[in-house]
């Protein structure tokens, strides 16, 4: 199992576990400009992008939201559904028309609780993505607001 920071579900989960997750997915689409979720809102679902792009952004008081990452084909949109208090830590907006698989967060959490092997695989996959996105956010904020950017220290 490959759970690198940018691993897609296809690469991160064995086929049997992936197929079980896909059994609860439904196909959805979003027009360009639609907000999938707002930072601080209730995180009750997640998506795997089939086509299109979604930007993840961070609210900065007194400024425009900062885009920290742009996601595309086969990438996970949303991880806050997995961790209490199930509140979005970033915002997300479709930057082009998007088609995706949508998953009910509570249903997937229940599946993970019933099957520890599935739960461990999902936690490892999503956890690696969380760590990667937090590092990207940190770097982006340093580039924008630190006196000397995120370059190496003197």
From TrEMBL:
Alphabetical list of Pfam families matching this protein: cNMP_binding (PF00027)
Domain Cyclic nucleotide-binding: residue ranges: 9-78
UniProt protein name: Cyclic nucleotide-binding domain-containing protein
Annotated InterPro entries: cNMP-bd_dom (IPR000595), cNMP-bd_dom_sf (IPR018490), RmlC-like_jellyroll (IPR014710)
């Amino acid at each position: 199992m490959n759970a690198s920071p940018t691993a897609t579900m296809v690469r991160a989960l064995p086929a049997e576990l992936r197929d079980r997750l896909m059994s609860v997915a439904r196909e959805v689409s979003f027009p360009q400009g639609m907000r999938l979720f707002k930072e601080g809102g209730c995180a009750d679902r997640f998506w795997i992008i089939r086509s299109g792009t979604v930007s993840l952004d961070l609210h900065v008081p007194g400024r425009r939201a900062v885009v920290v990452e742009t996601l595309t084909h086969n990438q996970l949109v949303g991880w806050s559904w997995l961790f209490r208090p199930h509140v979005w830590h970033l915002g997300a907006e479709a930057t082009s028309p998007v088609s995706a698989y949508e998953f009910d967060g509570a249903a997937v959490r229940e599946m993970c609780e019933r099957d520890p092997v599935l739960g461990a695989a999902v936690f490892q996959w999503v956890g690696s993505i969380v760590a990667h996105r937090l590092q990207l956010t940190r770097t982006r904020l340093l580039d924008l607001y630190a006196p000397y950017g995120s370059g190496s220290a003197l």
